[in-house]
Design a protein that fits this description.
single chain, about 550 residues, alpha/beta, eight-stranded mixed beta sheet, six-stranded mixed beta sheet
Length: about 550
C-alpha cells in the first residue's frame, strides 16, 4: 500500500509532463499552421519579375527574393563574357561573382506569415511591378492595427500583402487586414486598355475583380451584361398606329425600358430598312419603316442594331444607306450591312466595355431573291462562303477578347433546329465563337451551350423570334429576350450566367400593340420548347 502511495506522485508528474509536451507540441503545430483549413492549396513558384532583376521563389510557404546580376562587379569591368574566357583568376572571380549574385537573397517573407501564393505584377498601374502575397498570419490586422484596438486576435486569418521593389530592399506598400473571404486563388487580369486588376477566387468558386484605388483595393464591377431582342418587324398596323397616335413610337419599348437601361449592352434585330420618304413606308412583303422607329430605338438606349436580314434590300441601296446613316449619327453600332460607297469589306465591329473588347459579326442566309449589287458586293453580309466566314472570325479573334455572332437563319414558324442551323453552329463552334444569337424563324427556339472537342464553349440562342409584329391573336408569344453576362476569369472570359425570357405581344383596342413579360397565368413558357431534342446537342 505504501509503495503505491510513493508511485502516485511520480505518475502524476509523468502525466503532467506528457500533457505539457502534448500542449507544447500542439502549440508548435498551431504556430506552424498545421490546423489551417484543408481547402487551402499551397503553391510553390520560381520565376523572375518582368525586368529580370529579381528572382522570386515560393517554397514551403515562405518567399525569398534575390537580386539577379551584380551591378558593382559589372562596373569593375568583369562581365558575363569574361566569365567564359579561360584567363585564370579573372575567370574564376567572375564565376564566383555570378554564383553569388544568383544566391544574393535581399528579402524573405516575414516570420509567422505563411504564403499561399505569390505574384509579381503592376497591380497599382504605376508602371512598376509590385510583389503580392496571398498569405496567412495570426491576427486580423496587417502590419499595424487601429489605435482603438488594444490587442489583436490570436487566430489565423487570410491577408493580402503588397510590397515595392527597391534596389536592394523590398518595402511594404499595403498590408491588408483580414480579407473576410476564403480565397483559393488570386491572379492578375490585364484588361484590353492595359490596366491591371486582381481576380479573387473564393472557396465557392465565385470570382471577383479588384482595382487599386489610391490606398488599397476596391471591388470593381467587371462583368458586362447583355440584353438581346429578336425581330423588330414593323407590319402596317404598327407603323400606322405610331404615325397617327404616337409619332415617337414610344409604345414599342415602354415595358422594357428598365431592363434595357440596366444592361451594359442592349441589342435588337432591326428586321426592316428605315426610309425617310413617307411614300416609301410599307409593310409586307417589301418593308419600308419610318425613321421614327429608329429614333425610338435610340431614345430607349439600344447600343447595337443587327440589320443583315432577308428584308435588308427591300428598299434597295437607298434603304441600306439611310439605315446606316441614321444609326451611325446616333452612335449606335449598325451590323451586317455596309453603305453603297463602302471602300472595303468590314465583316465585324469592335466594341469596348469595361476593358473587354467584343467583336460583333452579323450575317443573313439571304435577301428574298433580291441580288446584292455587283458594284457593292459587301452591302449585305451573307451566310454563304464558309471559308470567308471562318477567315472573318479568325481575324476578329485576333482583334478581340470575346466574339458575338448574330445570324439570320432557320426555318420560319418552326420550333425545330434545321440542318442549316446545325451545320453553321458547328462551324461557329470550331471557329471559337463565344455567343451566337439567331433570328428569322419568327418564333422562339431553344438555347444551349455547346462544347468543342478542344473544350471551347459556345452559347447559342437558335432563335429569339419576333420582338414585335402585328399578330392576329390578341395575346401571343412570338419571341423572347436573351440575357447573358460576360466576366473575366483566370482562364480568360466566361459566360457567368445566361437566360431566355419569353415575351408576349398584346393587341389593345384602338390598334396599339405592346410587348411585355409573359403573364403569370399563361402556360409555362418552357412549353414553347416542346421538343427537348431540338438543339444540336453536345455530340
Amino acid at each position: 500500500m505504501n509503495g503505491n502511495k510513493r508511485k502516485l506522485p511520480k505518475l502524476i508528474l509523468l502525466l503532467l509532463l506528457i500533457a505539457a509536451l502534448t500542449a507544447g507540441g500542439g502549440y508548435a503545430l498551431w504556430r506552424a499552421g498545421a490546423f489551417l483549413p484543408r481547402w487551402i492549396a499551397w503553391t510553390d513558384a520560381d520565376f523572375s519579375d518582368e525586368t529580370g532583376n529579381y528572382r522570386i521563389v515560393l517554397d514551403n510557404r515562405h518567399v525569398t527574393v534575390s537580386r539577379q546580376g551584380n551591378p558593382a562587379r559589372q562596373e569593375s569591368g568583369i562581365s558575363r563574357e569574361a566569365a567564359g574566357r579561360d584567363d585564370g583568376p579573372s575567370r574564376e572571380a567572375a564565376r564566383q561573382d555570378n554564383a553569388a549574385a544568383q544566391d544574393s537573397v535581399i528579402w524573405t517573407s516575414p516570420k509567422g506569415v505563411l504564403v499561399q501564393k505569390v505574384l509579381s505584377a503592376d497591380v497599382d498601374n504605376d508602371g512598376r511591378e509590385e510583389l503580392v502575397l496571398l498569405c496567412w498570419k495570426t491576427g486580423r490586422y496587417g502590419r499595424d492595427r487601429p489605435f482603438w484596438v488594444e490587442k489583436d486576435e490570436k487566430k489565423w486569418s487570410q491577408h493580402l500583402f503588397v510590397y515595392e521593389y527597391g534596389q536592394e530592399i523590398i518595402r511594404p506598400q499595403w498590408m491588408s487586414s483580414f480579407l473576410g473571404k476564403d480565397l483559393t486563388d488570386v491572379s492578375v487580369y490585364r484588361r484590353a486598355d492595359n490596366l491591371n486588376r486582381l481576380l479573387f477566387t473564393d472557396s465557392d468558386g465565385e470570382i471577383s475583380c479588384w482595382k487599386w484605388d489610391s490606398w488599397g483595393f476596391t471591388l470593381e464591377d467587371a462583368a458586362v451584361s447583355f440584353a438581346a431582342f429578336g425581330d423588330n418587324l414593323l407590319h402596317d398596323p404598327l407603323w400606322h398606329y405610331g404615325l397617327q397616335n404616337d409619332k415617337a413610337f414610344s409604345f414599342l419599348f415602354e415595358n422594357l425600358r428598365d431592363v434595357i437601361a440596366d444592361s451594359d449592352v442592349a441589342v435588337i434585330n432591326q428586321e426592316t430598312p428605315l426610309v425617310e420618304d413617307p411614300a416609301l413606308y410599307s409593310g409586307y412583303p417589301r418593308f419600308g419603316t419610318p425613321l421614327g422607329v429608329g429614333q425610338a430605338i435610340a431614345d430607349t438606349g439600344f447600343d447595337i442594331v443587327t440589320c443583315a436580314t432577308n428584308h435588308a434590300l427591300d428598299r434597295g441601296p437607298d434603304g441600306i444607306n439611310t439605315t446606316i446613316e441614321f444609326f451611325d449619327s446616333r452612335d449606335i453600332l449598325c451590323l451586317g450591312i455596309q453603305a453603297e460607297d463602302a471602300a472595303e469589306y468590314r465583316p465585324y465591329e469592335i466594341m469596348m466595355r469595361k476593358g473587354i473588347r467584343f467583336a460583333l459579326l452579323n450575317y443573313t442566309y439571304g435577301t428574298n431573291g433580291i441580288k446584292v449589287p455587283d458594284t457593292a458586293p459587301h452591302m449585305v453580309h451573307l451566310l454563304k462562303d464558309e471559308a470567308q466566314i471562318r477567315e472573318d472570325i479568325e481575324n476578329a479573334r485576333a482583334d478581340a477578347d470575346f466574339i458575338l455572332l448574330f445570324v439570320h437563319w432557320g426555318t420560319e414558324n418552326s420550333p425545330l433546329i434545321d440542318e442549316d442551323q446545325k451545320k453553321w453552329s458547328r462551324i461557329f463552334l470550331e471557329s471559337h465563337v463565344d455567343v451566337v444569337i439567331g433570328t428569322h424563324p419568327h418564333i422562339l427556339q431553344p438555347c444551349e451551350v455547346l462544347t468543342a472537342e478542344d473544350g471551347h464553349e459556345m452559347l447559342v440562342y437558335y432563335s429569339l423570334g419576333n420582338y414585335i409584329s402585328a399578330q392576329s391573336q390578341p395575346y401571343s408569344i412570338k419571341g423572347g429576350m436573351a440575357g447573358f453576362t460576360v466576366s473575366p476569369s483566370p482562364d480568360g472570359y466566361k459566360i457567368t450566367e445566361y437566360s431566355l425570357t419569353p415575351l408576349a405581344v398584346t393587341w389593345h383596342k384602338g390598334g396599339r400593340y405592346t410587348v411585355d413579360y409573359v403573364q403569370k397565368s399563361y402556360p409555362d413558357p418552357d412549353s414553347f420548347f416542346s421538343n427537348s431534342d431540338s438543339g444540336i446537342g453536345l455530340e
